[in-house]
Input
Amino acid sequence: KLFFTDYGNAAKVERCDMDGMNRTWIVDSKIEQPTALALDLINKYVYWLDIYLESVEVVDYQGRRRQTITKGRQIRHLCGLAVFENYLYTINSDNFSIIRINRYNGTDVQALARLDNAKEIRVYQKRTQAAVRSHACEADPYGMPGGCSHVCLLSTSHKARTCRCRTGFILGSDGRSCK
Output
């Protein structure tokens, strides 16, 4: 799945399949300016920052069990969001400090370090990486990803795929080759 925010005409947190199909709103009320997302891949939770409402909130992948983690003026200056173990990590855009927040109750807020001009944060750790299994976009015997001539996108599951073409090409009737 692909998770993303939008705060154009109607602010929301959404998800869709990797090929853009099955687009679903998971949060569309009491939300104004969601600017960053973080996923708990193990427990299937979505965390987001709303800088207008000055809050960090969480829902499950279906948009249920919504909770506010923390709220207050300090949220207005946060950008980027990552989750690892018991904490959320974010950047204070005023002083570029890395902030750690307890993700269960919003307490234990600490500034950890300072990075000049930081705007985003990611945690790279072996335990945060999903196990790789065979999938529909693996190269076929001819080296084509999922048998697609240009781009292979996972669809409704790791066993399904959608072929797409680069700009200026159209997908052939076989659903795999681009012309």
